[in-house]
Design brief:
The structure is a single chain. The protein has about 290 residues and is of the alpha+beta class. It contains five helices and ten strands. A six-stranded mixed sheet has the order 2-10-9-4-7-6, with no helix packed on it. Strands 1-3-8-5 form a four-stranded antiparallel sheet, with no helix packed on it. A hairpin with a 3-residue loop joins strand 9 (about 265-275) and strand 10 (about 275-289). It starts with a helix and ends with a strand.
Length: about 290
């Protein structure tokens, strides 16, 4: 029995030593994502605060209630705390110091257990103390291992969750459906908003119009779509843009003449970007009398 307990203490001490090394190795990986995640987290925190401010203004316009305010504030605090926790577990403190403290405490209790005969000559007291030391050493080892798994999970999340551009596409003033009169010709404002977490680069934006629309030359190329494309015989206004920064809206102009038929027409928009490839959107033009 005594030999079995001694072996258990020795095994715990071995695990503690190995896991301290694993913690240090984990930080070598997490450090490579720390700078990027810190920058993104600060940006996400500011966006979350901005969203909360906008939500409070919206609630004020509708008639603010204390319960709604508390709910919105609590949700924002939880989101911001979660972002802070993510950074902590990728940092030196969270990835190495925090779990290593647990493993060192576990190691100390394991070493005390292996030398219990020297510390406590009383045989009955030895047995009780061995059980307490064994339970404490195992518990702190388990807690440290749980922290280690959290660090690995955050590293995996950081590796998978690469920042990419994301877009909102609409006509100005910020609408999915634009109204034009029959046979009306005018300059139309068309916007692409990069609401993602990274700069959009090397963009080609195809705004596809049915052949009943007349598209005039402007600061874009006009490309007739072939039968091999998704929209045969459509005329595409092709805009080429070098980059759109994060949280930036780029405005484009189209010189367009509406058809004579009163109808609602879907306008497919294809955006090709260096990191995301092709993303598809759809807006509409409603021809009215």
């Amino acid at each position: 029995m005594i030999e079995s307990i001694l072996q258990t203490f020795l095994l715990l001490a071995t695990f503690d030593t190995i896991l301290i090394s694993v913690s240090i190795a984990n930080f070598a990986v997490s450090a490579s994502y720390l700078g990027r995640e810190t920058r993104l987290t600060r940006w996400r925190m500011e966006k979350r605060k901005q969203k909360l401010s906008e939500r409070i203004k919206e609630l004020q316009n509708k008639g603010l209630s204390i319960e709604d305010l508390k709910k919105e504030t609590k949700e924002a605090e939880n989101d911001i705390n979660a972002l802070g926790t993510r950074i902590f577990f990728l940092s030196w403190l969270g990835a190495v110091v925090f779990p290593s403290i647990m493993f060192i405490i576990s190691l100390i209790f394991a070493l005390l257990g292996m030398n219990i005969e020297i510390l406590l000559p009383n045989g009955q007291a030895q047995g009780l103390m061995e059980q307490n030391l064994l339970a404490t050493s195992a518990a702190t080892l388990g807690f440290g291992f749980f922290i280690l798994l959290l660090v690995i999970a955050f590293i995996d999340s950081a590796a998978r969750r690469l920042p990419i551009p994301e877009f909102d596409v609409y006509f100005e003033p910020k609408t999915d459906t634009l109204k034009m009169k029959r046979k009306e010709r005018r300059s139309i404002e068309f916007s692409v908003h990069n609401r993602g977490e990274d700069i959009a680069q090397n963009l080609q934006i195809f705004v596809n119009f049915p052949p009943v629309f007349k598209l005039y030359l402007g600061s874009y190329d006009i490309v007739k779509q072939t039968t091999e494309t998704d929209f045969p015989n459509y005329n595409a206004a092709v805009f080429k843009t070098r980059m759109i920064h994060v949280d930036t809206i780029t405005l484009y102009y189209l010189d367009l003449e509406a058809p004579d038929e009163i109808e609602s027409y879907d306008i497919p928009v294809y955006i090709y970007e260096r990191k995301t490839g092709l993303t598809k959107y759809k807006i509409a033009i409603q021809v009215i009398d």
